[in-house]
Amino acid sequence: MARAAGVAPARALAWLEGRARPTYRQARQIAQRLDVSLGQLLLPPPERVTLPVADLRRGRLPMDEPSPALLNVLYDALRKQDWWREVHRGRRLGFVGSFNWRQARPIDVAEAIRKVIPVQQEQRQARDWSDFLRRLATATEKAGILVLRRGILGYNTHRPLDPEEFAGFALADPEAPLIFINTRDYVARRNFTFAHELVHIWLGQSGVDDNLELETPIDLETFCDRAAAELLVPEETFRHVWASTPADPYDVAQHCSRFFWVSLWVVSRRALDLGLIARDEYRDLMERYETTLLQRRNEHRGGNPYRNIEVYNSPTFTSAVIDATLRGDLGYGEAASLLGLKISTFVAYLERRI
């Protein structure tokens, strides 16, 4: 705190003990470092911090509260959604909320998604897991759904988003649906998260997810898991690929993982559910998978900073903000804020786009 406000540690201690108060400038610096608003810093804390959408995270304890980073990312997405809704006022996407999960079958939802997003086509053309995710995101945006992908808070590479806290979320709005994917998660797991969030959109159910590879007591999440598995790994195709690869189950699972561009867990769970492997074989696959996961969990690439602006904020959304700015409908300050940029950075980015 002392470093954040540029004071001696003794001064910061006096603030904490109530013997002195920070200046307005110092209070703003502290709030910025803590990822909270100035009002949140100065007002008494609420009894409990909750998410503005359904909290569907698995493995969370009842007393666990969302971190400031998660709240920051979620409220930023909601603000983008509000602006996007105003831009497209009156437009409604019929597929949002087109199924009632209590009455539908997962396979029917998966088939409905394929009619809008060519999942298997993108799967066949993809070079690897990351390329498949990029292709899915592009096709999803063409369908009218904003896709935000980032693994850091803002543009600060020293503030990674914890994939153990949340892997992604869906904001199911018929005028402005939105999906967020935490790219800090293991690369092979992001595609299942993406498919899971797509199912949420088709069910019209917003929510924040984490650890989708854990069992869940939430019926809605179980439905989304099954629909996502059918979407990415269709039963008929999967049975054929599995049977045509006679080898050790681990080698077969790895082959299927690369064929469908999903994680080893998705493949193994699919094989177990379809009776292609026994429970003890599934446990063995999971033990080997966990070892791989620990080795690869922290893989992350920075990429081009200007390209990241589009990825972080959705290419469609970014282009709309740029167009609105050039038309004079948005001021530079508001446009920069919507993209999470300083005005000087936004101007430099705008000059590159023109």
Q: In percent, how much strand structure appears in the residues?
A: under 5%
Distance between the termini: 41 Å
Largest sheet: 4 strands, mixed
**What is the general shape?**
globular
Cα-atom radius of gyration: 22 Å
The overall pLDDT average reads 91
Feature tags:
354 residues, mainly alpha, 3 domains, 56% helix
Describe the 3D structure.
The protein is mainly alpha-helical. The chain folds into 3 domains: 2-42, no CATH class; 47-57 and 66-232, no CATH class; 305-353, no CATH class. 56% of the residues lie in helices and 5% in strands. It has helices at 2-5, 9-16, 24-34, 38-42, 68-87, 106-116, 119-125, 129-142, 187-203, 219-232, 235-243, 249-260, 264-273, 279-296, 305-313, 315-327, 332-338, 343-353, and strands at 146-150, 168-171, 178-182, 207-209. Helix 6 (106-116) packs across helix 10. The protein is globular and about 70 Å long.
Secondary structure blueprint with pairings:
Layout: H1 2-5, H2 9-16, H3 24-34, H4 38-42, H5 68-87, H6 106-116, H7 119-125, H8 129-142, E1 146-150, E2 168-171, E3 178-182, H9 187-203, E4 207-209, H10 219-232, H11 235-243, H12 249-260, H13 264-273, H14 279-296, H15 305-313, H16 315-327, H17 332-338, H18 343-353
Parallel strand pairs: 1-3
Antiparallel strand pairs: 2-3, 2-4
